[in-house]
Design a protein that fits this description.
alpha/beta, Uracil-DNA Glycosylase, subunit E, 3 domains, 471 residues, 5-stranded mixed beta sheet
Length: 471
């Protein structure tokens, strides 16, 4: 997120001045007011003058709307270019295990960033998804070079092929639909005008339809040929037979597209599997739209990745930053925002590097989530909102914690303690043993602490020693 934001600032700094100047001062955007000359005003009736003034205001509103739209597209394009730069800077590992992790993350990104059809905004967004698909192709190709016998390889190839098909039909669906409607409409009109010409027009219709199918087939062949090294017969020729048990396991694991896209490495797994989190959040946000708070009108934000056998850090809620709407990943239903794990990423923000460093004290990875999903900086105002709205978010988070099944949980801030600590809540005080508690319904040990990034050396060392005794 920090990398995206900084590069976007640089890009805007270089180009915004020239862009705005061209829009505001260019002749084709000049205001219509200067067409009304002062020397003629006395000859114009009051009604006519009022009509002209209204028309001028309408034209001015159109101009301002056009400027605003172009500004938004420009900002979006800058954010997309920044994401593409991040992809370009992502090195494809030359070792198998880290390469599988990269493929797993790219699979999640491909699922979250679908191709869109029609409009300038769709074209801009599709540039990132195109770059993502190309990066995925290169990673799959590298896996084939490293280990052509790896059981994951064929699955990743299938994912790539299906994404190529999705891209073609989504990007060109409007063209295909328009052609089909034109040909079908012309055929029906011809039959209505001249029933005796049925045979001739039927032949024309079949020829036109065959032409469309031929074009589609040629494009698919061209795409396949373009990426031939990944699907060559040469690579298949020297692949030894896979054991029947392995084939059976692959078929059960990858029986549909959703499972394929959610395939994870041995370390990471999808917290939002089958849209679990985004579906619940959409339902909660729709249910409480009547609340008169700014945060209910903002898209909720959630963590999409978990790390197995990890230390779980839990904050109260994500802070609000309007830039997140452009920089974060959009959920499949487009009702929520999400972010992936920063574990083992060189470009991780300093905050997440601190969490990773703390977990490394125990030679473990880390997972980070929040208790609540509303983006709000005033925590006191947030906690005074509808108690059922908060309760339903907490229920979703409890399910997520059970899914993560961490080794230890560290809850940050007194706000977390306020929500979940009590005899009738998640953390019963009677479960305290050696300065830690047990979360209800599990055997997972729990600690309450200030955010580890603000702990001094002594406090940090004490917390590490307490956790180490349990592990």
């Amino acid at each position: 997120m920090g990398t995206f934001e900084n590069s976007l600032k640089r890009e805007l700094g270089k180009n915004t001045g020239k862009f705005i100047s061209n829009i505001i001062f260019g002749d084709r955007h000049s205001t219509p007011y200067r067409r009304v000359r002062n020397s003629n005003r006395s000859r114009i009736s009051s009604s006519e003058r009022k009509r002209i003034e209204n028309e001028c205001r309408r034209q001015e509103a159109i101009v301002h709307a056009d400027i605003e739209r172009k500004n938004q597209l420009y900002i979006l394009d800058g954010a997309v270019l920044e994401n593409i730069d991040a992809l370009n800077n992502l090195d494809i590992p030359l070792e198998k295990e880290p390469l599988l992790q990269v493929l797993s993350k790219l699979s999640v990104l491909l699922k979250a960033n679908k191709w869109e059809s029609g409009g300038d905004e769709a074209k801009i967004r599709n540039k990132y998804t195109d770059a993502l698909l190309e990066k995925y192709r290169l990673a799959v190709q590298e896996l084939e070079i490293i280990d052509s016998d790896d059981p994951h390889l064929e699955n990743y190839k299938r994912i790539y092929s299906k994404q190529k098909r999705r891209r073609f039909f989504k990007v060109y669906q409007s063209v295909l639909i328009a052609l089909s409607m034109i040909i079908g409409g012309a055929y029906l009109m011809a039959l209505a005008d001249s029933p005796t010409a049925t045979l001739s027009y039927t032949l024309i219709f079949i020829i036109a339809l065959s032409f469309i199918i031929g074009v589609i087939t040629y494009i698919k062949y061209w795409l396949k040929k373009k990426h031939a090294p990944m699907n060559s017969n040469k690579s298949r020729k020297f692949q030894p037979a896979v054991l029947i048990e392995e084939v059976s396991q692959q078929e059960s694991n990858f029986s549909n597209v959703e499972e394929e896209l959610n395939m994870q490495s041995p370390i990471f797994f999808d917290l939002n599997e089958n849209g679990r989190i985004e579906t619940r959040l959409a339902s909660i946000w729709n249910k409480y739209q009547c609340l008169d708070y700014d945060f209910i009108r903002r898209k909720p934000l959630f963590a999409a990745d978990g790390v197995k056998d990890s230390i779980l850090f839990v904050g109260i809620n994500p802070a609000y930053d309007y830039r997140d709407d452009e920089l974060m990943l959009l959920s499949t239903d487009k009702e929520s925002l999400m972010y992936g794990s920063f574990y083992q990423r060189d470009d991780a923000p300093e905050y997440f590097k601190s969490l990773e460093e703390f977990a490394a004290s125990f030679e473990k990875g880390y997972t980070q989530i929040n208790l609540l999903y509303m983006r709000e900086n005033d925590r006191d105002k947030m906690l005074k909102s509808d108690e059922n709205f908060i309760r339903e978010q907490l229920e979703l988070t409890y399910e997520t914690i059970r899914k993560i099944n961490p080794l230890v949980i560290v809850f940050f801030t007194d706000y977390c303690r306020y929500l979940i600590f009590g005899a009738d809540r998640w953390i019963d005080p009677v479960t305290e043993i050696d300065n830690h508690y047990i979360i209800r319904g599990t055997n997972i040990p729990v600690f309450f602490s200030d955010d580890i990034t603000i702990l001094d050396t002594v406090e940090r060392g004490e917390l590490i020693n307490k956790i180490r005794k349990l592990l």
